[in-house]
Amino acid sequence: xxxxxxxxxxxxxxxxxxxxxxxxxxxxxxxxxxxxxxxxxxxxxxxxxxxxxxxxxxxxxxxxxxxxxxxxxxxxxxxxxxxxxxxxxxxxxxxxxxxxxxxxxxxxxxxxxxxxxxxxxxxxxxxxxxxxxxxxxxxxxxxxxxxxxxxxxxxxxxxxxxxxxxxxxxxxxxxxxx
Length: 178
What we know:
Helices cover 38% and strands 15% of the residues. The chain is an alpha+beta fold.
């Protein structure tokens, strides 16, 4: 007898165990009724791939493609158009200026200044998004005018660029003195 498959090994062992227990009990051998090891089940593929295997293959292929981009760029240092790195919010806020304003109180302390409240503007209007240095200068002029003569308004502003935040203004000097 040639090489046996794993199922032959299993059934041969089972047949021996069954034969031994039945013969010991005084009964007939199982092999006399049916030889379990002679019954073979040769299941052949139907020629089609199951839906489950197709889904698994699709999942593995898509996941591999998604992971290949960052791995290629971050581990191997390769940048290609086919394997792109993950980019979140590529250029959504580019050029936008993030500004905060403070005004000096009579006692010398600085408190945050709400530009919408001081200028009487709606929060969803034109003051919500400052997109250029010229717009920032315009807002500062309007704030200084609304705050009155001699107002001390400090402005911290930074602009979003591809290389990171670029400082536009620091709060070192009075913006109304310009």
